[in-house]
């Protein structure tokens, strides 16, 4: 149905795609896998005719025999939406925040002259129902901010399939979502393909996501397709070394063995921690009861231990992390680090604050863009004054995370996401803390980079005797890097135990749901 | 920088006005305080490049000195606005949701609730008309503008992880505001300053037009306009020249502000590429 042959693309003279040939038939799901920068998204944009300025496209691009490259902008506009639909990674920004979801879905129909306003409204309600937003629970009059990330992605899907396109392009549609939501969205997409007979191009960096969904699989590296074939056989045979590397990274486990925990009192003790957010107004006068983000949580971390904390977004894990770090006060209970009480803000002595640090999720928002690396890393020296050997320690920290000390005079925009995360780890390390809180520290990274960072974290932990509080929504990350794990749901710890035991033999229904939702690659015999 | 007509045009016009104003400090073609009735209403040309007014004063010299007082008033007024507004905005953002934030922002609303020019007239009417009081009046109305722009931009930054990292390093709100927040909103403030500067020039012209700005014999564009009004049919040049000076200066500064915004905003820069 859609056919790409020898598609080449250069952006301002720089080659981006080279000899890309793909084919997607009716009712077929083609998975396109590769790392960031491999050209996956550019392939999608080339098909949609949405390339940025300065792009030069060569080769053939046909939709049912129609040469898309020969169409004018105006003609392409008609094809887009009608024959080609697309959904993006970030459902938070893909919707207009001031328009009701029903109207946004209806708009596609009205713009293409398919329906009158009233008909489009009815069609929109039907579509929203089809994508799992039934009108009795999610009326089309809702606004995007009233929906969760997964529900917004469903609205995006409803918009994309409104005109029954022949091809739907999904660019990392579940990367920003929790595992359980991800599984449901993938199921929905699969069901829609079977029902409508459209083709689906599913783009992702994680092979595990594709494995249960795609009929065929293409692996892309540096703008070229390195391997293509039926998904099951590509994943089982792994002929190309790059495919092998991607599969290995997806199921990666650090090899450094964890050091035995030394005896003694726990490093961190959390007892009956409680934190709620003030009530929000509902309507003009009614106040809702305060939202309990963390509701009576207790746990401990031994010296040198790595503890996982798993749960979906909104379960309170980040709120808990902020309290542990002394950024937000608790309303009840107590947190002790090394025997001393952790208090929020200025009430916490520098001596105590020095004993912990954090690495955050977003490698792009974690650094002041106007400072150089040396100054960024040295920020924790603010606690207790800049030591006399500060420069040596900055170099040592850069070396410890696998970067060249020569990078110290560069600005942060000169680094890739993985390198930035290494710099964030260097910043967390430099004041020689005992505890590092890793708040989704590898969630935004590609599988191969993620594997490298996990190795680095395991290695640093063994070398410096660190303890980790490893927060993630992704069980596979926690499995490979923690000894114990806590499962959190709606502000409470619902299960706790040795990581292997919890993951192999979950006791709580929620843990079971999380586990079954996580995409897995089958190990070939 | 090559394909930015706004920035270049704005820079050239504003630069020319500033140069003429600066030049008037050391040299003017003729003394603007000396009256010379014999030379009154001379057409442009000869020793008087732009002619003379009804009292025989050189128009070019008047415009140059007038530019000086307009720029001085607007500049100091913007300085007052930034000097008070930016710290207030930073404080409000740092204590977002707290009582300080609430007080600062409600005071802003209060000032915004008054019509700026009418209050400026009131202030100069009470304190007496002078350039200094014009500065004060215009400056006060610049404070909430800068406070609001600063707070809005700073609020976005406070959610970023590098602010978290600074908090973890034990840095206080004031330190974080100056070290991490202010440098990252500076370009926005520069753009706002150029726009407020042009509004300040307009406000000064308005105040001196109604006689509440710089007092005679100091020339000012607004009063030149007012005095030329009675002779609009006999010597239209007397009204057109200061009017043109005001329009060009404001236009130049607005273009400069627009151009700076495009040049300094990394988001727009990426879109342009």
From TrEMBL, chain A:
Predominant location: membrane
Keywords: ATP-binding, Nucleotide-binding, Transport
Gene Ontology molecular-function annotations: ATP binding; ATP hydrolysis activity
PROSITE patterns xrefs: ABC_TRANSPORTER_1, ABC_TRANSPORTER_2
Protein family according to the UniProt entry: Belongs to the ABC transporter superfamily.
Family annotation (NCBIfam families): PRK10419.1, PRK11308.1
Name of the molecule in the record: Peptide/nickel transport system ATP-binding protein
Biological classification of the source: Bacteria, Pseudomonadati, Pseudomonadota, Alphaproteobacteria, Rhodobacterales
From TrEMBL, chain B:
First-listed, main subcellular location of the protein, grouped into a coarse class: membrane
UniProt key word Transcription: no
Domain ABC transmembrane type-1 residues, every copy: 67-257
GO biological process: transmembrane transport
Transmembrane segments: 7-28, 69-90, 110-128, 134-160, 181-203, 239-260
Record-linked Gene3D superfamilies: MetI-like
Superkingdom to which the source organism belongs: Bacteria
Compartments (UniProt record): Cell membrane
Keywords, comma-separated and alphabetical: Cell membrane, Membrane, Transmembrane, Transmembrane helix, Transport
Protein name (record): Peptide/nickel transport system permease protein
Membrane topology: Multi-pass membrane protein
Family under the similarity heading: Belongs to the binding-protein-dependent transport system permease family.
Gene Ontology CC entries for this record: plasma membrane
């Amino acid at each position: 149905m859609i056919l790409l042959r020898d598609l080449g693309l250069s952006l301002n003279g720089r080659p981006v795609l080279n000899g890309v040939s793909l084919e997607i038939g009716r009712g077929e799901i083609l998975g396109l896998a590769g790392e960031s920068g491999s050209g996956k998204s550019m392939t999608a944009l080339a098909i949609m005719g949405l390339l940025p300025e300065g792009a030069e496209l060569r080769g053939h691009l046909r939709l049912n025999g129609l040469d898309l490259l020969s169409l004018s902008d105006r003609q392409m506009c008609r094809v887009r939406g009608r024959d080609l639909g697309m959904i993006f990674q970030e459902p938070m920004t893909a919707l207009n925040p001031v328009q009701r979801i029903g109207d946004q879905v209806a708009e596609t129909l009205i713009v293409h002259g398919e329906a009158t306003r009233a008909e489009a409204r009815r069609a929109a309600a039907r579509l929203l129902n089809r994508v799992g937003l039934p009108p009795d629970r999610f009326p089309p009059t809702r606004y995007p901010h009233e929906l969760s990330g997964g529900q917004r992605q469903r609205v995006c899907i409803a918009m994309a399939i409104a005109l029954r396109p022949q091809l739907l392009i999904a660019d990392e549609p579940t990367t920003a979502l929790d595992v359980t939501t991800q599984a449901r969205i993938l199921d929905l997409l699969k069901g829609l393909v079977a029902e409508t007979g459209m083709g689906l191009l599913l783009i992702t960096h994680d092979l595990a996501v594709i494995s249960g969904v795609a009929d065929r699989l293409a692996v892309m590296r540096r703008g070229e397709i390195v391997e293509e074939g039926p998904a099951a056989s590509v994943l089982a045979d792994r002929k190309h070394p790059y495919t092998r590397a991607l599969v290995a990274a997806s199921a990666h486990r650090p090899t450094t063995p964890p050091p035995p925990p030394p005896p003694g009192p726990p490093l961190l003790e959390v007892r009956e921690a409680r934190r709620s957010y003030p009530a929000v107004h509902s309507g003009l006068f009614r106040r809702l009861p305060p939202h309990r983000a963390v509701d009576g949580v207790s746990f401990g971390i031994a010296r040198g231990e790595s503890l996982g904390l798993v749960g979906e977004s909104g379960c309170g894990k980040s709120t808990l992390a902020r309290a542990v770090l002394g950024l937000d006060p608790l309303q009840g209970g107590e947190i002790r680090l090394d025997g001393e009480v952790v208090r929020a803000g200025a009430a916490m002595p520098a001596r105590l604050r020095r004993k912990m640090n954090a690495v955050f999720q977003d490698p792009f928002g974690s650094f002041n863009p106007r400072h150089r690396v040396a100054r960024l890393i040295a920020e924790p020296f603010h606690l207790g004054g800049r030591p006399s050997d500060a420069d040596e320690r900055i170099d040592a920290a850069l070396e410890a995370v696998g970067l060249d000390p020569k990078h110290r005079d560069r600005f942060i925009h000169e680094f890739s996401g993985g390198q930035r995360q290494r710099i964030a780890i260097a910043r967390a390390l430099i004041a020689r803390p005992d505890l590092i809180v890793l708040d989704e520290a590898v969630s935004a990274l590609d599988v191969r980079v993620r594997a490298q960072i996990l190795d680095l974290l395991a290695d640093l932990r063994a070398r410096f005797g660190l303890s980790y509080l490893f927060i993630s929504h992704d069980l596979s990350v926690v499995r490979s890097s923690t000894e114990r794990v806590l499962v959190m749901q709606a502000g409470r710890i619902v299960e706790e135990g040795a990581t292997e035991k919890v993951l192999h033999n979950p006791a709580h229904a929620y843990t079971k749901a999380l586990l079954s939702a996580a995409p897995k690659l089958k190990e070939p015999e | 920088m090559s394909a930015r007509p706004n920035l270049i045009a704005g820079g050239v016009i504003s630069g020319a006005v500033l140069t003429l104003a600066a030049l008037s400090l050391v040299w003017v073609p003729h003394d603007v305080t000396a009256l010379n009735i014999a030379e009154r209403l001379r057409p442009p040309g000869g020793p008087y490049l732009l002619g003379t007014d009804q009292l025989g004063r050189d128009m070019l010299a008047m415009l140059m000195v007038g530019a000086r007082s307009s720029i001085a008033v607007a500049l100091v007024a913007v300085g007052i606005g930034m000097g008070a507004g930016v710290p207030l905005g930073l404080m409000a953002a740092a204590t977002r949701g707290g009582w300080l934030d609430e007080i600062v922002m409600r005071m802003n609303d209060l000032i915004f609730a008054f019509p700026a020019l009418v209050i400026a007239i009131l202030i100069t009417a009470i304190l007496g008309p002078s350039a200094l009081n014009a500065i004060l009046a215009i400056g006060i109305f610049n404070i909430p503008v800068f406070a609001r722009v600063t707070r809005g931009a700073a609020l976005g930054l406070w959610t970023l992880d590098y602010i978290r990292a600074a908090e973890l390093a034990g840095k206080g709100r004031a330190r974080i505001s100056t070290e991490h927040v202010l440098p990252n909103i500076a370009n926005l403030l520069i753009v706002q300053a150029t726009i407020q500067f042009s509004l300040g020039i307009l406000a000064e012209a308005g105040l001196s037009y109604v006689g509440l700005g710089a007092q005679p014999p100091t020339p000012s564009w607004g009063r030149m306009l007012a005095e030329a009004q009675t002779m609009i049919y006999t010597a239209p040049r007397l009204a057109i020249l200061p009017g043109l000076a005001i329009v060009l200066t404001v236009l130049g500064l607005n273009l400069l502000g627009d151009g700076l915004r495009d040049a300094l905003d990394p988001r727009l820069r990426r879109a342009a590429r």
